[in-house]
Backbone:
């Protein structure tokens, strides 16, 4: 009986132990499934997956990996593990339908340039306050309104005059277009425009364009991945020197506005910020977000964003029209028929479907901002994958604009992408050049208005052609890789149609 008891006791213990192990296995398996991380290429020690990237077109490499691993995958930029979000449905799911990806990742170069305040790369309550302030005041000073339309029309006349002065000879339009576009955001921020030959203004515009190129350059990305090893790179030194000069010139402009400030009659965003700062100081608010750091960073953010992307799109549009003269002729035929010789206005857009489709197709093909870098604000299980709080999330906007599953001819310039069978303008769900969600471009409505009015004004007055001796198919459609993508430098002829 003792032996039977011992046998039964041992059997019970063994079964109980096996049962506990089985339950632990089920629990651990369930836990692992909850914490399953997105798939991705196997990383090398220290280098991660950097060897896979095409330095001339990094977003193209990521697009190919999206087709291999799916719309949510892991990529190692050196030792830094990132999650990549691709495809317009997944991008909208992450940025619009979830708050988990609402923060910006702040790279080492952004810290060095002291741009962690303002609206571009800040997070938390300060960012919320500054974005709300910027959006409200940009609208107050004309963004999306008739007043802003008049500013753009006036600036387009200055731009047309400058093009006319070239007398049909070949020239690079970069500086003139950059200055014209920059004047729109300058009029909103500072309350006035600048002349195209103003030395300080020209230098500010050139630095804004150059900085965006340097921030996305390979040496800067190596520094961001290995900050302790690549502090010496020339692009970092240039960016820090440029930042110092930027701050000095911005302070000079702000000082001039401060000396003539009338809080009851604000001329632009800077005046409004200074008036708010005075109000908070008078009320004894020592923790106000209306301080110099936020003012400096907000001005830099608005000036850079309001200059680079829109001007790059317009310049690329000029090259594409010279490359495809039949499309240019159709645009001008529609404008002749609908508008004639009078000034084009925003309200004309609905009656110019082909022209509108061409502008949208320029934006799609230009793909000026192919990626946007976010980070998770909290631990999240997204699409079945566990993503830890603070994980950088690279949103691959180019995957929406160039996806073979979304566009009939994704790698061909084809305005028909935005036209229905009757020739009416057609919206496309995958058209996301301004990103989406709470971190979408704050100046989207301004950019859309600028693109339409500058584009139509230029093509109302000029026919754009390659320089003498250059064939249409020889025009360079490549782009310079940086924080944004800009057209390769090249000359065109602006032949007067007047």
Residues:
């Amino acid at each position: 009986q003792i032996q039977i008891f011992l046998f039964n006791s041992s059997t019970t213990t063994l079964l109980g132990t096996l049962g506990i192990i089985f339950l632990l296995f089920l629990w651990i398996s369930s836990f692992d499934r909850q914490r399953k991380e997105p798939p991705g290429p196997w990383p090398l020690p220290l280098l991660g997956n950097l060897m896979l990237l095409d330095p001339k077109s990094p977003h193209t490499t990521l697009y190919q990996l999206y087709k291999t691993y799916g719309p949510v995958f892991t990529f190692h930029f050196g030792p830094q593990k990132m999650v990549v979000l691709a495809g317009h449905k997944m991008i909208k799911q992450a940025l619009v339908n979830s708050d988990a990806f609402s923060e910006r990742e702040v790279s080492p170069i952004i810290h060095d340039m002291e741009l962690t305040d303002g609206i571009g790369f800040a997070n938390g309550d300060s960012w919320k306050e500054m974005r709300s302030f910027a959006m409200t005041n940009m609208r107050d000073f004309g963004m999306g309104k008739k007043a802003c339309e008049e500013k753009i029309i006036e600036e387009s006349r200055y731009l047309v005059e400058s093009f006319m002065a070239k007398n049909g000879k070949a020239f690079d339009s970069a500086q003139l277009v950059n200055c014209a576009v920059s004047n729109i955001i300058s009029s909103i921020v500072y309350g006035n425009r600048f002349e195209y030959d103003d030395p300080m203004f020209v230098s500010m515009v050139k630095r804004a364009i150059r900085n965006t190129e340097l921030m996305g350059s390979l040496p800067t990305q190596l520094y961001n991945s290995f900050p302790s090893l690549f502090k010496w790179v020339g692009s970092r030194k240039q960016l820090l020197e440029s930042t110092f000069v930027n701050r000095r010139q911005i302070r000079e402009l702000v000082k001039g506005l401060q000396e003539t400030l009338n809080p009851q009659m604000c001329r632009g965003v800077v005046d409004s910020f200074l008036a708010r700062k005075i109000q908070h100081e008078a009320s004894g608010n020592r923790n106000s977000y209306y301080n110099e750091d936020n003012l400096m960073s907000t001005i830099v953010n608005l000036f850079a964003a309001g200059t680079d992307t829109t001007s790059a799109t317009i310049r690329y549009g000029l090259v594409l029209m010279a490359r495809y003269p039949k499309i240019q002729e159709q645009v001008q035929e529609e404008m002749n028929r609908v508008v004639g010789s009078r000034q084009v206005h925003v309200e004309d857009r609905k009656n110019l479907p082909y022209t509108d489709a061409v502008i949208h197709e320029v934006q799609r093909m230009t793909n000026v901002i192919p990626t946007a870098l976010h980070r998770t604000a909290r631990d999240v299980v997204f699409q079945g994958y566990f993503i830890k709080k603070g994980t950088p999330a690279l949103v691959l906007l180019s995957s929406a604009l160039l996806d073979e599953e979304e566009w009939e001819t994704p790698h061909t310039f084809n305005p028909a992408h935005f036209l229905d069978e009757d020739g009416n303008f057609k919206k496309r769900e995958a058209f996301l050049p301004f990103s989406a969600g709470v971190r979408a471009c704050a100046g989207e409505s301004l950019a859309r208005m600028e693109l339409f009015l500058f584009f139509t004004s230029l093509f109302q007055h000029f026919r754009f052609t390659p320089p003498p001796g250059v064939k249409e198919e020889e025009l360079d459609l490549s782009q310079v890789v940086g924080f944004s993508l800009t057209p390769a430098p090249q000359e065109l002829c602006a032949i007067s149609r007047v």
Observations:
- Residues 2-7, 25-33 have pLDDT under 50 and may be disordered.
- Residues 2-34 form the longest helix (33 residues).
- The two ends are 115 Å apart (CA to CA).
- The chain is about 50% helix and 10% strand.
